[in-house]
């Protein structure tokens, strides 16, 4: 029986808002994918451009956005120790470092955008469209990182409602602006096409960042201006972020290689892959709501040395992850032949999508377990282990499987088989590590 005062009682209250907030970002990408893919002229080419640029931007956000997890982990652990006052100056210092680095990356990536997308096998008109879309979208990169860091503060404080409110506002605004700017308003605003989708996303990111800084100031005691001296835990945040940085590089190596391989097959294949990848990302963020809740609660339980409840937490979120992944797979099966048409009106693109979609659906239940445990490990500060798991899974499973599948002529199916095996190894490693480390601790506490 879980005690009435147990943090586990708050699991659903944290997880549901976190799920809604989590799906807002991939929902934004799905909106761009659906609306751009249905542009009357060059829809398939525009869809391919969104896929190529989206994968690169996702890489940038995931690589530097990991500071959110480091902030959340430390805030929740200090909350569990009842020593929150000691780290009030820390989050804004971490945000300052994070955003400063992102501005340097923004400038460098703008200068070398042609080379970047050429390396991803974009050429000719596809390359020009990718550059057009990217040159606008990239300016939202620092804003997104700042907003994510604020999310980390709130989640560490066991509050997922404000991140949900911010994310929903941004997603709703983006959808409305997408329709207005991409298709235009007759007699008032000319259609902007692909660039309209980019402007819609950028404006939404500006609004989200503004709301985030206002809520941080109004709803918490954390300062919004950098104060000296440098907090001693900043080194810890930088260390955790560095491990997650390397982890994200490994993760994005898999994503970028998949996009590059699909692009080499032709416009139709990268279009189908873009739809599959966005659906995969959507499922990841949807399932990760319980991972976020697990991260917040797990960090607090670790800080207060409550190992029995930490063990129960892992079992509960693992079960919920499997159930949600299974439910998403069921929805996918129910609308198997209809989902693709939401994103593209090109019959050839949809034909390729339908021929591969089942592989993605089969992997979702096990993906669910991996995603939620991944979130829990972030809350526990196990960033080094997460780094090692991703490096091992990417370079000993994903890359060899991808190369072998292409050698065997499996095409797009081979890419998604490699993704499935990649996720299987990640989930298995997390389960084994948690059992090995925390089973003895919770048994010792019990006896």
Report what the structure shows.
This protein is mainly α and 447 residues long. Helix content is 82%, strand content 0%. The protein is globular, with a radius of gyration of 21 Å. Mean pLDDT is 86; it is low at 1-5.
List keywords for this structure.
mainly alpha; 447 residues; 82% helix; disordered N terminus
Largest sheet: none
Query: What's the helix-strand series?
Result: HHHHHHHHHHHHHHHH
Radius of gyration: 21 Å
Uncertain runs with pLDDT below 50, 5 residues or more?
1-5
How many strands appear in the DSSP assignment?
0
Determine the structural class based on helices, strands and strand pairing: mainly alpha
| Overall number of structural domains | 1
> Strand fraction band?
under 5%
Average predicted local confidence, pLDDT: 86
- Coarse morphology: globular
* Helical percentage: over 70%
End-to-end distance: 17 Å
What's the tally of helices?
A: 16
Summarize the structure.
This protein has helices at about 10-35, 45-65, 65-80, 90-110, 115-120, 125-135, 140-155, 160-185, 195-220, 235-265, 265-305, 305-335, 340-345, 345-380, 385-405, 410-445. The chain is an all-alpha fold.
Write the layout of secondary structure elements.
Layout: H1 11-37, H2 43-64, H3 67-80, H4 90-111, H5 113-119, H6 124-137, H7 141-156, H8 161-183, H9 194-219, H10 234-265, H11 267-303, H12 307-334, H13 339-343, H14 347-379, H15 383-407, H16 411-446
């Amino acid at each position: 029986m879980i005690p009435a005062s147990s943090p586990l009682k708050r699991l659903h209250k944290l997880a549901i808002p976190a799920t809604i907030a989590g799906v807002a970002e991939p929902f934004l990408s799905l909106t761009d994918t659906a609306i751009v893919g249905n542009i009357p002229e060059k829809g398939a080419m525009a869809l391919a451009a969104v896929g190529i640029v989206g994968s690169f931007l996702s890489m940038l956000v995931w690589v530097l956005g990991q500071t959110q997890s480091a902030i959340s982990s430390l805030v929740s652990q200090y909350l569990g120790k009842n020593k929150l006052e000691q780290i009030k100056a820390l989050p804004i210092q971490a945000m300052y470092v994070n955003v400063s680095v992102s501005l340097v990356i923004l400038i460098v990536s703008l200068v070398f955008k042609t080379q970047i997308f050429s390396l991803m096998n974009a050429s000719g008109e596809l390359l020009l469209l990718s550059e057009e879309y990217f040159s606008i979208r990239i300016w939202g990169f620092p804003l997104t990182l700042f907003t994510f860091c604020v999310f980390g503060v709130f989640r560490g404080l066991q509050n997922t409602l404000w991140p949900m409110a911010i994310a929903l506002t941004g997603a709703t605004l983006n959808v409305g602006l997408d329709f207005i700017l991409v298709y235009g308003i007759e007699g008032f605003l000319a259609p902007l096409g692909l660039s309209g989708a980019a402007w819609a996303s950028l404006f939404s990111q500006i609004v989200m960042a503004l709301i985030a800084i206002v809520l941080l100031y109004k709803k918490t005691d954390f300062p919004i201006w950098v104060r000296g001296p440098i907090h001693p835990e900043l080194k810890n945040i930088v260390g955790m972020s560095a491990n997650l940085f390397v982890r994200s590089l490994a993760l994005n190596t898999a994503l970028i290689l998949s996009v590059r391989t699909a692009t080499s097959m032709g416009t139709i294949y990268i279009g189908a892959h873009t739809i599959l990848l966005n659906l995969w990302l959507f499922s990841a963020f949807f399932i990760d709501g319980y991972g976020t809740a697990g991260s917040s609660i797990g960090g607090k339980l670790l800080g207060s040395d409550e190992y029995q409840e930490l063990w129960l937490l892992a079992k509960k979120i693992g079960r919920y992850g499997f159930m949600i992944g299974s439910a998403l797979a069921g929805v996918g099966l129910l609308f198997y032949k209809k989902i693709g048409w939401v994103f593209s009106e090109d019959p050839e693109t949809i034909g390729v999508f339908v021929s591969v979609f089942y592989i993605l659906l089969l992997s979702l239940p096990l993906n669910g377990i991996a995603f939620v445990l991944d979130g829990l490990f972030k809350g526990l500060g196990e960033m080094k282990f997460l780094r090692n798991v991703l490096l091992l899974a990417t370079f000993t499973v994903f890359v060899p499987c991808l190369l072998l599948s292409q050698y065997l002529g499996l095409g797009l199916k081979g890419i998604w088989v490699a993704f499935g095996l990649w996720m299987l190894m990640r989930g298995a490693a997390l389960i084994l590590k948690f059992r090995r480390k925390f089973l003895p601790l919770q048994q010792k506490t019990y006896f």
